[in-house]
Write a structure and sequence with these properties.
332 residues; alpha/beta; six-stranded parallel beta sheet; three-stranded antiparallel beta sheet; 20% strand; globular
């Protein structure tokens, strides 16, 4: 069987430890699929990557055939089947948002150009590093011969957070909650929407509002909890989400490779072209999607009330502003 070649731009070792183990033991690309892992990081981090390589080797995982640490994009992206771009420039104290965008445009313009030059045209690219939606758009624009549909950004962590909050409120396992939606940006403007969510209670699927029986919570504290969850994790552990982020990355990529169950959809930041929800074109915006044969399709025809429309438009406006700022740096 041919190996699947996967590159992970490491950056955050805490995420990498959980993520790489999950990939290497077959949780993402299949329990019988041999893989090669390529780990990309900046030059000063190569000695740390050597330690990560040793640990992966020491796991003695049968599917992991080779691990290649590198600081060179031409090595990292050659003939790739999947790229998971975790690394980005974090916001530092005193840094303006436009300065953060400018720094990340440089990173993702370079990585997009390298994907264009070296990766397979069928490569699936997941952008995790923040601001993830706009970083993903820049990478896609920098790789014009790779279909835009092959690029996505991570909003699955937000999706999982929303699903878990509803499950805890209803006293059921998270697996009994389906079809929550994250609309828009992976930021505090995102809109966690449960108007189409179903909760299985005592063997019957109930609408989320009927299961929770607390409209004020669902329209208030639930939304703000999901929107601010990342900040709450940082406040509590003085570090950003790692284990949950790695799990969400694995969920996202596994669904691309294996598809979503019939009647269920998940949230992904994808290209907004020709969507039916009135979202501006040329954005990476989180929508509900079905996935089959490694192709996503936005779920059409969901009813949108005025409450939802206002929140969907607000997060879209933020993305338009981010895009317009980033694009000025792209041509610089």
């Amino acid at each position: 069987m041919n190996r699947t070649q996967i590159c992970v731009s490491v950056s955050c070792v805490a995420i990498a430890y959980s993520l790489l183990f999950g990939i290497a033991k077959g949780d993402v690309f299949g329990k019988d699929q041999p893989i090669t892992l390529i780990l990309l990081d900046i030059t000063p981090m190569l000695p740390v990557l050597d330690g990560v390589v040793m640990e992966l080797q020491d796991c003695a995982l049968p599917l992991l055939r080779e691990v290649i640490p590198t600081d060179k994009e031409e090595v990292a992206f050659k003939d790739l089947d999947a790229a998971i771009l975790v690394g980005s420039m974090p916001r530092r104290e005193g840094m303006e948002r436009k300065d953060l965008l400018k720094a990340n445009v440089a990173i993702f313009k370079s990585q997009g150009a390298a994907l264009e030059k070296y990766a397979k045209k069928t490569v699936k690219v997941l952008v995790v590093g923040n601001p993830a939606n706009t970083n993903c758009l820049i990478a896609a624009k920098s790789a014009p011969s790779i279909p835009k549909e092959n690029f996505s950004c991570l909003t699955r962590l937000d999706h999982n957070r929303a699903r878990s909050q509803v499950a805890m409120r209803c006293g059921v396992p998270a697996t009994q909650v389906k079809n929550v939606i994250i609309w828009g940006n992976h930021s505090s403007t995102q809109y966690p929407d449960v108007h189409h969510c179903k909760v299985n209670m005592a063997g019957s699927d109930l609408a989320c509002f009927a299961a929770v029986k607390d409209d004020d919570w669902l329209k208030g504290a639930f939304i703000s909890t999901v929107q601010q969850r990342g900040a709450a994790v940082i406040a509590a552990r003085k570090l950003s989400s790692a284990m949950s982020a790695a799990k969400a990355i694995c969920d996202h990529m596994r669904d691309i490779w294996s598809g979503t169950p019939e009647g269920e959809f998940v949230s992904m930041g994808v290209y907004s072209s020709s969507n039916s929800y009135g979202v501006a074109e040329d954005l990476i915006y989180s929508f509900p999607v079905h996935i089959k044969d490694k192709q996503w399709k936005i779920v059409d025809g969901l009813a949108i009330n005025d409450f939802s429309r206002g929140k969907m438009d607000a997060t879209a406006a933020e993305l338009v502003e981010e895009r317009d700022t980033a694009v000025t740096f792209l041509s610089a």
